[in-house]
UniProtKB/TrEMBL annotation:
Any one Pfam family match given in the protein's UniProt record, by short name: DCB
Domain Mon2/Sec7/BIG1-like dimerisation and cyclophilin-binding: start-end pairs: 117-201
Lineage, opening ranks: Eukaryota, Viridiplantae, Streptophyta, Embryophyta, Tracheophyta
Record gene name: BIG5_8
Origin species: Vitis vinifera (Grape)
Protein name (database record): Brefeldin A-inhibited guanine nucleotide-exchange protein 5
Length: 210
């Protein structure tokens, strides 16, 4: 299963939250969302630039081959053979290491965010939950639920010294704190979805969270 169009659910949730952060409302949340969106745009622009370069390189390569009249037929056949086998062909596209980017990790369910990527995604969600404003709270809960359900997050909340333990323990405790006597049914349902999905996830090892 594709990661909801390479994390499109995150961008949609964040863009919805931005509408509620207009003006001077929730400046920290606005900044953290914009940082995430800018980082994904940079990746998309780099990919588009690489694809354009690759197309231009192949076009130029083909044109120069056609001008070599003396060896035209043999050269074209040799080039086609190399292109088919991958031998001698320069790959201009995606650079080594982009598999670690957020876009690549979110492209398919089960690909885990790592290191700074986790903080970049979770920081806006944490700030949104703190507002207690339903217009940003509920998209944040839905986004967190999907991140866990699609197995993009891995950690040991509740376990001392576990992977990402403080970060995940903190945000899940915040999720629990969303529910009080005034909570709407939709908020309660979303909180239960997040917690039950975390309990059922094979990538979350630990206790939940009181």
């Amino acid at each position: 299963m594709a990661g909801a169009a390479a994390g499109g659910f995150i961008s949609r949730a964040f863009e919805s939250m931005l509408k509620e952060c207009s003006g001077k409302k929730y400046p920290a949340l606005h900044k953290s969302i914009q940082t995430y969106l800018d980082s994904t745009k940079e990746v998309d622009q780099h990919s588009a630039f690489s694809e354009t370069n690759q197309a231009a390189s192949l076009t130029a390569y083909g044109s120069s081959s056609e001008t070599d009249a003396g060896i035209a037929k043999n050269e074209i056949e040799a080039n086609n053979s190399r292109a088919h086998t991958g031998e001698g062909v320069e790959r201009v596209g995606r650079p080594v290491g982009t598999s670690g980017t957020i876009t690549a990790a979110l492209a398919h369910a089960g690909h885990t965010l790592e290191g700074a990527e986790v903080e970049l995604v979770l920081n806006p969600l944490r700030l949104a939950i703190e507002t207690k404003n339903l217009k940003v709270l509920e998209p944040a809960l839905d986004c967190l639920h999907k991140l866990i359900a699609y197995e993009h997050l891995e950690g040991d909340p509740g376990l001392d010294g576990g992977t990402n333990a403080p970060l995940f323990t903190d945000i899940l405790n915040m999720v629990c704190s969303c529910v009080d006597n005034s909570s709407s049914d939709s908020t309660i349902l979303q909180v239960l979805q997040v917690l039950l999905t975390a309990v059922a996830s094979t990538k979350f090892r630990g206790t939940v969270y009181g």
